[in-house]
Amino acid sequence: SKGMVSCGTIYKNPHLLDKTPLPSSKKIMLKKELMYLYDGILKEKERAALEDLQTQEKSCMEKYRRYEQEAKDPVLKDLFHQLHLKEKKHYDSLDQLLSGNCPECDCNDADGKNYNPKATYTSMSSPEDKESDCFLATDAIGTEKLVSGEYNTNVFVFAEPCVRKLLADIQIEEQNHAEMLFKYKMANAMA
């Protein structure tokens, strides 16, 4: 009918959408939906990269769940619990991307800087418990370095700015996790 424009025309000429009486938030959402519909937000290589990153996050979640149970020190148990929740959030964000939605991200780059654990282990503590917890924290730092490196490499696979920003933000959060674990080790003279 007269005055109607096809979705394909709007996709190829997004400025046409600007002339509609829709609220700007609806216009932005419609433009994104058209992009997903016609281009797909993810190319095959991008989808594979996200699936690999999601596998890394799932492994981290499982590791922190297990390490929370294995840790002797309640402070370290709590840290592993918190890290498990943060990795779950990363996993869920990647899941949203795989579903065609780019979630809002608010990089928390202060966790590492603001984390100040109290020392639990003293010269009177069980050396076996301290050694065991040191192993868990050291292994977790290595994992965070690996995962952070994966994000650093994979961020360049993506053309979509919102995806690159989300992955860069997650990378910073992974670095913060390693810093928190390192501070735990330093506070407990495990270095």
Short description, anyone?
With 191 residues, the protein is mostly helical. 71% of the residues lie in helices and 0% in strands.
Question: How would you characterize this protein structure?
Answer:
The structure is a single chain. By secondary structure, this protein is mostly helical. The radius of gyration is 22 Å and the shape is elongated. Helix content is 71%, strand content 0%. The chain starts with 6 loop residues before the first helix and ends with a helix. The mean pLDDT is 87.
Helix/strand layout:
Blueprint: H1 7-12, H2 15-18, H3 24-38, H4 44-70, H5 74-98, H6 111-114, H7 127-154, H8 161-187
Helix pairs in contact: 4-5, 4-7, 5-8, 7-8
The tally of helices reads 8
Number of DSSP E strands: 0
State the separation between the terminal residues, measured CA to CA.
Answer: 74 Å
| H/E topology pattern | HHHHHHHH
Largest sheet: none
**Contiguous runs where pLDDT drops below 50 for at least 5 residues:** none
The chain-level mean pLDDT equals: 87
Secondary structural class: mainly alpha
Q: Radius of gyration in whole Å, from Cα?
A: 22 Å
Overall, the morphology is: elongated
Strand percentage, roughly?
Answer: under 5%
Helicity level: over 70%
Task: Offer a few descriptive terms.
191 residues, mainly alpha, 71% helix
